[in-house]
Amino acid sequence: MTGTGSIGRKLTLLLAGVAALLSLLSWAMVNGLAKQAAERTQDNVLAASATTIAETLRSEQGEVRLELPYSAFSMLGAIGEDRVFYRVTAGEQMLTGYEDLPLPSDPPSQGQVVFDTAQFSGEAIRMASVSRVIFAGVQAVPVTVTMAQTRNGVSAITSDLSQLAAFLSVMFFLVAVAMSAFAAQTSLKPLNEIAAAVARRGPSDLRPLRREAPTELAPLMTSLNRLMDRLGQSIRRSEDFIAEAAHRVRTPLATVRAQAEVALRTTDDDAEKQRLRRIIRAVDESSRSAGQLLDHATVAYRAEDLSRHPTDLADIARKTVDGLEPTAAMKDIYIKLDTAPATVSGDAVLLENAFRNVLDNAIKYSPEDTTVTVRVFVENGYARAAVVDEGPGLGDGPAENLTERFRRGRNTEGIVGSGLGLTIASDVLRAHGGHLDLGQPTKGKGACVTLVLPSS
Amino acid sequence: MRYACLALILTFLAGVSSALEVEDHRRYPGTGNEELHVISTADLEVFEPYLLAFQAARPDLTIDYTVASSAELHRAIRNGAVFDLALSSAMDLQFQLANDGYAQRHQSDRTLALPNWAKWRDLIFAFTAEPAVMVLSTERFAGLPVPTTRQELVGVLRQHPDVFEGAIGTYDVRESGLGYLFATQEARSTDAYWRLSEVMGRLDPQLYCCSGQMIDDVTEGKLALAYNVLGSYAADRLARASGGKVQVLSMQDFGNVMLRTALIPSNATNPDAAGLMIDMLIDLGLRSTPENWPLPPLNQVGIDHAAGFSQIRLGPALMVYLDPLNRRAFLSEWENAMVQK
């Protein structure tokens, strides 16, 4: 699987990027608006000042007179500590003020305020000019009042607001990033939950996932369930095939064995007898393998839909021991049975199958003239059926490997076997919520295989 | 303003120093070569302690101290006379110098400690707050009620013209920058000013250039009353005892408080030393105890809280009465009231 990075991180980064962009944008906007507002405030104050002065204009004895009102100047101190310049001209003649103050680029018409920016006395200034026509004697004289102010106050206000806006933008960005991370985590939670649910499942659990999932994940869930369904079907089909094949093989094998026995009995040639015995043994082994394959398929099939009934493990042990006693007797193996009632809830057929495989193994690997001990007891709420033999033991390899399909112990050369026995037993026990315990007896050599099941 | 361009150029040609009307001048030689040239409206006897205190801190510095009227000081700086520090009681003229670009910036931890109302653009710095008061002669006022408002003062003057005929002193606002500032601010703030001026005008008032002379004349009994005298000078002189012959009076209805300001002219040759001197003056201006300095600090209990006293604001409005048209109009009205022929 190739990784293409984390969705959560990508989502967080993307959202943070959007937040950064928005923060920057809002900062720039606030900046622009603050500048505009401050400039407009200054314009309004300048206009008010110029208008106030223009209102004092009057004609006296044929001359234009005016009086600079105190308020017209004091209001200019409102914005900040800005330098103030002014000029009043009547027609071409200068009445009062700063003679070299620049003229407004387009002269104001009657009653209108004209704004302009210029350079004066080494600083940028903002000017507001108002014009009024005064009748001085016989002729109308246009009088222009210009009030000008430096722009430090405006800059100070703007930079103050800009700093505040920058601070707020950074705060907004940080909050947005935290919230993005949270949002990404929250929206990815169902996905993680589904992944965890799948990961928690046992190796053979192919039931469909039945979980509440967001709409976006529904297709994934459906596909996943369909895949598992197909996989289950395919496994079942192959198990069915194996069972069918084993079944088909077993019947002709029985015929071959019967014919070989007949031939063995009717021949006197020792060499031929020897050959026939070998044939019989091989047929037995094949039949056994086929039986085990069938058992395995049965286990797989029945474990899927387990029927649970109270079953006494001791009963099963006794019945199985009875069934295998003749086989043991052939090798002069004595089976010692020591049982106490141990009721478990489960499928009697499967449990018997499991126990038979374990006991069969024990007999198979035990040398002649030894004892196999079977003990059934309850301990710590678990029913246990232990089978102890005096054979070569389970070897040094990891015990768990022995329950894998077709895996056999290292010290089994010379003994025929399919490697399915312990696998079947282990599968059955796992389906019942128990497990197979592989180990050594407390004293002497040999193997100790214990079926452990929750007692009921 | 700039209505005398030609005169200005001529003044330049004639030489700056010769154009300056110096009232007093003294050098305080230091041990080093560095010099600090101060032009001020404060009399030497008032300001000498400050100069000596500064020289004690900087003994290497030679201090050159020139006393001139506020109008002369203003004109000199405007015409490009070279000084490192200009100290003036005429706030309006100082403000105009700063506004028109004749001052340079100064910033230090001391100027930062100064409240906003006591500085402007880091160009001008206030270091004293001095109220306008009335000084009266107790001998001449014997038996008369002591007025506490302008209204009462008008009443007293009207009822006893014999006592006050030719015995009222006040600033000649045409000559004194400070007098003009006090008069315009008072005219703006209370309508009683013009009524009082009318009444005074009928009593043949004596016009002065400076507070010091008015107080001397009250002490000598030549004047019964001096109106709009600088409180600091009055207090200073009274401290040197007149044997209870004079009394300082604050009007309860309204009183101006002037801020004495300092600025470093833009062409100063030793702005660093000037900055240090300003820092020292601000330090003294911010002191909380009166101590033994001739000039009062910025925050004075009693002035701040007394009803009617208002500080003249350091702001563009100060330039209104400096406008030649406004000045002409105000002076003609003042002359009509005061100098009745």
UniProtKB/TrEMBL annotation, chain A:
Domain spans labelled HAMP: 185-236
Annotated keywords: Kinase, Membrane, Phosphoprotein, Transferase, Transmembrane, Transmembrane helix, Two-component regulatory system
Keyword S-adenosyl-L-methionine tagged: no
PROSITE patterns per the UniProt record, alphabetical: HAMP, HIS_KIN
A Pfam family hit: HisKA
Residue stretches spanning the membrane: 164-184
Enzymatic class: transferase
Protein name, entry field: histidine kinase
S-adenosyl-L-methionine listed as a keyword: no
Annotated catalysed reactions: ATP + protein L-histidine = ADP + protein N-phospho-L-histidine
Organism whose genome encodes this protein: Thalassococcus halodurans
Domain Histidine kinase: from-to ranges: 244-456
GO molecular function, one term: phosphorelay sensor kinase activity
PANTHER family: SENSOR HISTIDINE KINASE YKOH, SENSOR PROTEIN QSEC
Enzyme Commission number(s) from the entry: 2.7.13.3
Subcellular locations according to the entry: Membrane
Domain of life: Bacteria
One of the record's GO cellular component terms: plasma membrane
TrEMBL record, chain B:
Signal peptide (residue range): 1-19
Keyword Aminoacyl-tRNA synthetase applies: no
Transmembrane regions: none
Gene Ontology CC terms, in alphabetical order: outer membrane-bounded periplasmic space
SUPFAM superfamilies linked to this entry: Periplasmic binding protein-like II (SSF53850)
Top-rank lineage group of the source organism: Bacteria
Keywords: Signal
Protein name listed in UniProt: Iron(III) transport system substrate-binding protein
Organism (species): Thalassococcus halodurans
